[in-house]
Amino acid sequence: MKVVTTIKELKRILSQDRAEGKTVGLVPTMGALHAGHASLVRRSVNENDVTVVSIFLNPTQFNDKSDLERYPRTLEADCALLNECGAQIAFAPSVEEVYPEPDTRHFSYPPTDTVMEGAFRPGHFNGVCQVVSKLFSYVEPDRAYFGEKDFQQIAVIRRMVDDLGFQLQVVPCPVVREADGLAMSSRNTLLTPEERAIAPHIYSTLTASRQYARTHTVEQTLQYVTEQINAVPGLRVEYYSIVDGRTLADINDWADSDDVVGCITVYCGQKPIRLIDHIHY
User: Fold this and answer.
1) Is 37 labeled as catalytic in the residue annotation?
2) How far is residue 87 from each of residues 44, 53, 57, 80, 146, measured CA to CA in Å?
3) Does position 65 have pLDDT exceeding 90, yes or no?
4) Which CATH class name applies to 186-280?
5) Which whole number is the average pLDDT over 49-65?
6) Which of 11, 78, 157, 172 has its CA 20 to 30 A from that of 146?
7) How high is the mean pLDDT of the chain?
8) Which whole number is the average pLDDT over 219-244?
9) Structural domain boundaries of the chain?
10) Is 31 exposed, middle or buried (0-12, 13-18, 19+ CB in 10 A)?
11) How far apart are CA 214 and CA 28, in angstroms?
12) Which pTM was predicted?
């Protein structure tokens, strides 16, 4: 596997691959890779001739500076995992390489990017679109792979792909979970043992809410999930939204959509660590 740090070198390598008719898959990541990322990489390796994995902790999508500072950085271990998964290229540029000057582009795709994460993390999705659009232009992939844990992010990226006319397939991949149900996340490594012990209550509550929802309204289900999680010392719901899985607009009745998704963000611990998850009803 090659570790590439410049856009020029990345494009040079990929132009040779394309001249040979090879297909290219891209897995964008911010590093601190785990088994969830590995599942994306292996799928790309199976479906493409060349797989590029970007490792770039993008500063423009963090509206909380302390969150950016605390985000784990494990480049050596990341590269070892990617090599094991069969990736051909790890693209690990510096911030100066990606942003030689400030990116002033503004992306707006309401309501997809203005609800939930968009409401609680102003500017987050604009930063996501900035960096992902740059990666798409560098790599020009045939397919790009994203984990469904970031459910809203995939919806926003699809809007951006249509808006900018990228000729590629966005491939969503299932959430990978720990044995106790906690969605795998780079942030999980920041949890203390005590915090890690309570974090699975998020998914267990979401799972229980499926049965609850059969005999209760949307509003009652929203209240049930929020109260059940907030009742666990050390957990605090930032938001729980039940939405249409395509538009991400809130629904008021179960009959409003044939693709109903519950999306949640929970603060865990005293620091606290921000964990996201979702469930299909």
Assistant:
1) yes
2) 8, 7, 19, 10, 16
3) no
4) alpha beta
5) 94
6) 11
7) 97
8) 98
9) 2-173, 186-280
10) buried
11) 37
12) 0.95
In this prediction, residues 231-251 reach a mean pLDDT of 97
Catalytic residue among 34, 37, 124, 201: 37
Query: Which residue in this structure is represented by tokens 């271990």?
Result: 77
DSSP string, the chain: -EEE--HHHHHHHHHHHHHTT--EEEEEE-S---HHHHHHHHHHHHH-SEEEEEE---GGG-S-HHHHHHS---HHHHHHHHHHHT-SEEE---HHHH-SS--------TTTTTSTHHHHSTTHHHHHHHHHHHHHHHH--SEEEEEGGGHHHHHHHHHHHHHHT---EEEEEPPPB-TTSPBP-GGGGGS-HHHHHHTTHHHHHHHHHHHHHTTS-HHHHHHHHHHHHHTSTTEEEEEEEEEETTT--B-SSGGG-SSEEEEEEEEETTTTEEEEEEEE-
May I ask the CATH class of domain 2-173?
Answer: alpha beta
Query: Distance between CA atoms of 140 and 169, rounded to whole angstroms?
Result: 11
pLDDT, tens digit, for every residue of 18-44?
Answer: 999 999 999 999 999 999 999 999 999
Asked whether residue 209 carries a pLDDT value surpassing 90, the answer given is yes
Q: Which of 188, 128, 122 shows the shortest CA–CA distance to 154?
A: 128
Residue 151 predicted with pLDDT over 90: yes
**What is the amino acid identity at position 39?**
S
